[in-house]
Structures are given as C-alpha cells and as structure tokens.
Amino acid sequence: MRTTRTIATLAALLAAISAVPAAAAAKAFPVSRDVGVYSAPNLGSGIGVIKAGREVNVQCWIRGQAVGGYRIWDRIDHRGGTAYVHDRFVEMPGAGSPADAGVPECAGQGGLVNWRKVADGILNKDYRTFMNIKRSPPTDGLDFSSDGCSGPSLIRPAYRRLFDQPCQLHDFGYRNYGRGRRLGRNEQMRAYIDLRFRTEMRRLCTHRFRPSHERSLCQGAAEAVFDAVRLRGKEAFYGAPGRVVRATAASAARQVGTFNMAGNTDRNKGGLKVAELVVQSMLERRPAVMMLQESCYAQFHHTRARLSSLYRGAFFKVPGETCKGRAGSYGNALLWRRDALAVNHTKQYHLNSAPGLEKRQMGCVKSDRPRLVACTLHLSKHTEDESQRREMAVVSQTARGWATKYPVVVGGDFNNRPDADLLDAMYLPDYGDGAGGMFREIDDLGARAGEPTHAEGKYDYIFFTRNLRWHWGDATFSERSDHKPLWGALTL
After folding, report:
1. Is residue 427 in a domain?
2. With a threshold of 0.90, does the pTM exceed it?
3. Burial of 33 (0-12, 13-18, 19+ CB in 10 A)
C-alpha cells in the first residue's frame, strides 16, 4: 500500500507538467556582490559562485529557504542548465520584488525543474522502494535502465552480486542527472548520488546480515565499492571518455576525517567506549588521516594500540587540563596510516588564547611522501570571541606558511558557523562574504555552508588547499558525542 501511494504521488506530480505554460524569455540583471549559486532554492545545495557585477539571466522567481527573513529565490540560466541565486543579491532597478521587474513566478516549477523534482523524489527512496517503483514506473520520461554493478573494474564480482539493487538506484542517478537527461550534470550532484549509493549499500548490509561481524564485513565491502565509484565513475556519469585516475599509492583518493569525540564529558568521562567506536569507524573506512579533538590520553592510547599495525599517531596535550578518573591528559590527537603517509615531523602550536581560558592548541604532522601537512585543532567557544580571534590569527598564519611549500589539510572543531567573520581567514575568496583565505571546505565546495555537525549548526570543518583534488564530503553520526564525525576524500 505504501509503494502504491508513492507511485500515485509521483504520477500526480507528473500530471502537472503538461499544464505548465511555456517559459518567458529570461531577463538579465547584475548581482550586487559575490553570490552563491545553488542547484535548489536552499543553502545546502551550493554549486558555485558568481562574481559581483556579473549579469545573470533570470527566468522566474520561487519561494525557498529564508535568508535574512526573505524567501524569494531567482531561477537563472547556468552552464547549459538552470540554478538558483537568492533574490536579495540580484539588482532589479526600481523593483521591490521580481514581480515588479516583470519576472514571472516559476509556475509549477515548470520544464526541466519538474523532471528534476520527480527524479529527486525517486533518488531519495531506499533501495527496496526504488525497486518497487522501477517495476511499475510512473513515467517514461526518466531513464530506469540499468546494467547492475557493471563497473568500475575495481569492484569485485562478489560485491557486484551483493549490491545489485543499490547499483540499480545508482544507475538511475547517473543516467538522469549526468549523461542522458542531464538534470544535474556537475561534480556536486555526482558526489551526492555516490553518497546515496553508499547509504543504500550500508542499509542492505543491515537488512541482510544479523551477526555484527558479518555486517561489519559487508559494510567494509560497501566502503570499497564506494571508493572505487568515486575514483573511477566520472566517465560513466558524464558519458564521455576522460582521463582515468589510476589507483596507485601516489594518486588514489584517500579518506580523511575529523571528530570531536567529547572524551571528557559527563557521558564519556574519559572512558574507552567512544574510543572503540573511533577504532571501528577507522577499520571500516581506513582514512589516511584522522583528526580528533577533546580526547583523553587513555582514549588516544587505546585507539593507537588497537590500530598499531595500520596507524601511527601523535597526541597534543592542552596545558593544565586533565581528564576525569585516570584517563590522563586532555587534548587533541592525529593518526595517520602507515602506508599512506611517511610522517617525519610533528609540531604543537599554542594558539594564544585569551588569559583565564583554556589554552587551545593545534597539532600538525608533515609528510614528504606524499607531500602533505595535516593539522588538528579545537578553538574556544563562539561566545569567547576575543579568544577565537587570537587563536585564528595563529591558525591562519601557520597554515598559510605551510601552504607555500606543502598541500595542507586543517581539520577540527572551529566552534563557529560557516558565515562567521572568523572563518574569512580560512575560506578562499571564491566563497564570497569577505573570505580571504587559502582553503576549500570538504563538505561544500561552492558556498559557506555544509551539513550541521552540532546542535547549533556546522562547527566542524576539514579545510584543504586547492592543490588537493576533492572527491566527496559527508557528516555522519555518533551516539557518544554531541558532534558528528566529518569525512571526505581527497587525492593526496
């Protein structure tokens, strides 16, 4: 019954398409500042930036996420398709609203956006519901064809059979958003489709395997398939031959992660349960670099000991701070995979926190094979703004210095939201809003946004220099911390 209602809902949505009138000619207006471009009328779908003074061709206006209390967004022509910018940054002389300037409302979100909305609804179904929809498609306007888990060649035959149904959902995404209908032919959309694929593979593991060790093996296989698709799936998505990145030690995409493990809170009290969860996540994902904050030394020692055959690590103590019980010193930590980085130098930086507050620290490691500097940090609370400014001055100066010689990754709990002035020193100027730093952020390449990692918003970041190639970013979940782990993949 539930599947029937789902198909009926999709069919009703499709029925509106034929009633949509032909779109009026787009009108050109300049933008008043560097403005984010989005694939949907909300801040969580950034795909780029348009520089101040450039003109945009506005097709129509639509209501979306409120920004500064204003919900109007403009749909624009963008790179052969459509996209959205917030209306407050589009200059329409003498107009109090787009309608006053002769811009029509997007009636029914017609044309391409109708198909996009239908496809979005299908793509976001779990793999079982998708298979039911596919057996009786509500439309012939979308491509439901599939060849299962046909590639890349890095995927083992056993995995192809196991993950056949999530693979069919993945094919739907690639063939409708990428090649074929081209409803979202860009790298951000490809990354989202791949992440949906990963979610559904993991869901299948939960459904299929009851014993925890079998489920863990299945989820490890899902990570291997996901990594292969991120590494080798670009040609399948765009439908044209391109340079294939070979899976060599020097060029393969490597996962990186950051996690405020809240190791000394009343919930964890320096205990090892949260450390063991970190161990299990790292065994599943095998990140090249893992950056930890709010760690007790006992938790770091447990993690490093459990992973000693795979990882080395460094602990960066916060002066004057100790953990509850007998958990030892309190601080930040960094672990790196032995076969991924040849670390030959570690250094701890005192961040010049305001007097009377916790003496915040940043710890860094340097590798010359491949060349990389990775740093872990934890800034003061956002209410301690003077201390945050002092700390960021040290962080940005240090990171800039390293970035003149090495690719750099800086991860941790910055204790502030993406649009805060504090982070102007990190974000590249392309991000707008006064940004003047040297870094991209792993969870949003086009805007100062990203998934929340804390109840108060996005506080955790992985910043990286532009000479590292981005593959994907994703905030997940932890049952023992008030922060979400943040993961991503880069070619180091």
Report:
1. yes
2. no
3. middle
